[in-house]
Amino acid sequence: MSLAPYACDAGRSRGRRRPEAPAPTRNDFQRDRDRIVHSTAFRRLVYKTQVFLNHEGDLFRTRLTHSIEVAQLARSIARPLQLNEDLVEAIALAHDLGHTPFGHAGQDALNDCMAQHGGFEHNLQSLRVVDSLEERYPDFDGLNLCFETREGILKHCSRANAERLERQEPGGVGRRFLDRTQPGLEAQLCNLADEIAYNAHDIDDGVRSGLITLEQVAQVPLFGRYHREALHEHPQLQGRRLLYEAIRRMLSALVYDVMAATRQRLADAGVNSVDDVRMQQAMVCFSDPMRTESAALKQFLFRDLYRHPRVSETTLQAQQVVRELFACYVQQPQEMQAGFTARSDTQRAVADYIAGMTDRYAMREHERLTGRRLLVPSA
Fold it and tell me: Which residue ranges does the record assign to the HD domain (predicted)?
C-alpha cells in the first residue's frame, strides 16, 4: 500500500540511537514491532490490571488484551488514511509497557512514593523499558527502537522530565514537549485509538462484572443510539448479543468519524509532509459532535464504573500493597532481584522493580514481606 506524503516512512526514519544494519526482509518499524512482541515487558501485560484486578475474573481485559485491541483499531484507521500501519502497530503494542500492577491505582500510589525523587509517569516508564530496562541484546540495553516508535510511546511528559530527556538526548523525543509541537500522525492515531478502546471494552467489562447494567449504559447518548438501532433491526436481541451488537455499531461509528474528521482537518490545513504535521494542531481527531458524545460516555464510566464502591475498595487495597512494597524494598534493597539491588539510585530502582511486576507477583511479594494478604481472589 502506498503511503500518504504526511505518513512516517520507515525508509526516512530518524533512526535508532545506536545504528544497526538493516534487516533483510523487514523494515525498521516492523522490526520494532517484533522486538516489542518478544520483550519480557510485553508478556507481563497479560497479568496486569486494566480496570478489574487480574484475579477477579478470567474474561476481563488486561493490559495485554487492551494493547491488542488498540493496535487493531489503530490499524483499521491507519490503512484508509494511508498512514504507516507497521509503525502504528508498534506504538500501540508498546504504549503500556511501563504500566504498574493494579492499573491506575498502582501508578498513583507509585507516583506518591516517588514524589521526592522525580515522580512516576507510566508513559515515561514505557520509554524507560524500551530504552534501558529490557535486557535482551549483547551490545545495548533496551530494545534500541526507532525515534518514531519511541516518540509515539511517550505520548505525555511533564516539562521537568522533558528537560531531563533533552539533556540526555538533545533534539530527541523530549524536544516536542518543550517546543509544543506535535508527534507524527501515527502517534496521534494511537493516542485516540487508546481512548476508543477504553470506551468500548470498559462498557463490556463493566456490564459483565455487574457493576453497571445495560439499561444504565443505554441512557448515555452515544451508546444509547446504537443500542436502539440494534433493537430496531433485531427486536429479538437481548443480553450479551445485544450488548456486543451495540458496542460493535458504536465502535464502527467512532472509527469512521475519526477517518472523516482527520481527512477534513488535514485538507483544511494543507498538510503535505511529516514536518507539516508537527507544526500544526493535532490532526487525528473526532468531529465536534462525536468528541462531545465520547466525553459524555467517559464521564459516565468514570462516575459509575471507575468510582464504583467495589472498584474503590480494591483500589485502596492495591495502593496499600504498592506503598508497603516500596517502603520494604527501600529499607531492604536486598529483597529485590540482584540487578536492581546493585543500582545506586535506590528509590528509582525500587520504582522500576515494582512497575515491572504483574498483579499476582506484587500480591505474592507483599504477602512474603509483610505476612499479610490484602487482595483476595473473588470466590
Answer: 63-199
